[in-house]
Structures are given as C-alpha cells and as structure tokens.
Amino acid sequence: MTQRLFGFLLAALLSNSVLALDSPPPPDPNRSDNETRDIQVYDALVGSNPDQDFSLYRLNYAIANDEDLLLQYSFKYRVLGELYLAYTNLVLWDIYHAEQPAIDNNFMPELFYRFLIYKPWLTSVDAGWFHRSNGREGPTSRAWDRWQVRFNTDFKWRHMDVIWQTAFNSDIKKSSKNKDINDYYGPWESGLTFRNLLGNHQNQLDLLVGLVAGEDGYRFNTGQKTVGLHYRMRWAKFKPTLYLRYFNGYGEVIQNYNIKTESLRFGLSFHY
Questions:
Q1: Closest Cα partner for 24 from 12, 40, 9, 10?
Q2: Taking a C-beta distance cutoff of 8 angstroms, is the pair 178, 142 a contact?
Q3: 95 phi and psi angles, rounded to 5 deg
Q4: What share of the chain in percent tops pLDDT 90?
C-alpha cells in the first residue's frame, strides 16, 4: 500500500513540476481567479501570450484506477514568432507491481506554427510535424510520424466558455511494427472543452469530450472516445483540478494501438 501511495504522489509531483519551469506574468489584482485561469487556458490551447515563451501545452495529469496509473506532462516553447517546439510524455505505469514498471512510455515531440486568425468562428490554426514512439526495440517497438493541421475555436455558448479543436493527420512514416495503425487511429480527431459547466455561480466544473475517428475517417468501431470531468480547486497558490476520465477505444498508448481498452481513472490534472 505504501508503494502504491508513493507511486501516485510521485506521479502527481512530476505532473506539476512543469509549472515551475517558467513563471507566468504576475496576476492582475483586478482579475478574479477564474478570469486568470480562463486567460491561461486560452493562451495554452488556442491563443498567444507574447510575454511567455514557455508554457503548458496539452493536459498535464496523473490519474489512476485499481490496475495502473496514467501520467502525462506536456509543455511548449516559443522558438520564434508563433513557431513552437512542444513535447508531451505519456506513461502507462503499473504502480501495483512490486517493481512498478512502465508498461509503455510514449514520446511525442512536435514542431508547429500557430496562425492567429481571431475570427468568431476560428481563433487559430496550428500546422506542423507530430511524432509518437515508445523508444523500444523488437516486437513491441512503435513509431509514427505525421503532418497535422489543427483548427482551434474559442467561443461563448450560454454561460459557458467552449474550446473546440479539430485536427487532420497525414502520414509521413510508420514503423514496420505498426503499419496498420491507421486502421485503429483514423485521419482526424476532435475535442470539446466546456468550461464553467454549471454557470457563473458554480464555475469550478468543466467537461471534456474527445473523439478520434477510426479507419477511413468515418468508421467508429475503432478509434477512441474520452469523456472527462474537471473540478477546479479553490486554493490560493497550488491550483490542481480533480480529474475523472473515461476512455474507450484503441491507442491509449501506442504499444497497444490495436487492442481495445476501456478504463475509468481518477486523479489530479494541471492545465491552468
């Protein structure tokens, strides 16, 4: 039990460690805590903050169930103008085993340019190179390079802030060990984030919904589906969210790209 608790706490600390690498500008005393978080989410996902070169990118989290723990940390660096170098690491970790081995470790560097549009129907467009591999040799080796174009939209709907991102992928190169990966992970993916789900008086709950198409882009017996709930904590300095996530489909980690899994995990996330 002690090893399990230690493993989970260590993962949570690793997930949060990227927050200390680059301090954001001092908070505006005239802004509420939620307004500050809204700006940080906007800058990370769809917009641009000229005063901050290093920032978070994809969701950072440590979530577990009674089988394993899933840890992800992600950040991006502004190289020049709106050209970004990003890195995401995803680890499926068997914290219940005596030696706590990593079941699969996914390395995901990216290089993309963000075109800022600022239209009501389109906030920005990201275009660039995306890599994913697990750094292994032999039969469990996996590697995949793609071009990706991602359309980012941020808008108000009723009392909620909605972020909608849709990406289209095109293969560059695939490992011989995963040549059929497109049968399980299709050419497009889409995600919706509904912030302040319960309205302005209960604005600590967010809903995340994600869909990855299956084979040919219109089959959904493969691909993947995710649903997540964030509950934002009201702590002064340390700002995690409680994160509950359901996953169903293929490719949660690249080693098991052709194996269907279903999971419900709970833990902490850090995105803003």
A1: 40
A2: yes
A3: -75, -10
A4: 65
For residue 221 the two structure tokens come to: 């017996």
Which 3 state secondary structure label does DSSP give 134?
A: coil
Q: What is the DSSP string of 149-193?
A: EEEEEEEEETTEEEEEEEEEEEEEEE-GGGTTGGGTS-SEEEEEE
Render pLDDT for 8-34 as a digit per residue (tens, 0 to 9). 444 444 444 444 444 444 555 555 666
Residue 57's nearest CA partner among 112, 102, 129 is: 112
Signed CA dihedral, 169, 91, 222, 45: sign only: negative
Q: Write down how long the chain is.
A: 272
Q: How far is CA 241 from the centre of its chain?
A: 14
Structure-token pair, residue 182: 């497109």
Instruction: Tell me the pTM.
Output: 0.86
Are the C-beta atoms of 221 and 183 separated by less than 8 Å?
A: no
Hey, is 68 helix, strand or coil?
coil
Cα(116)–Cα(221) distance, integer angstroms:
35
**3 state DSSP class of 28:** coil
* Residue 254 φ/ψ region, left for φ over 0, alpha for ψ in the -120 to 50 degree band, beta for the rest: alpha
Q: How far apart are CA 235 and CA 209, in angstroms?
A: 26
Structure tokens at 200: 């302005």
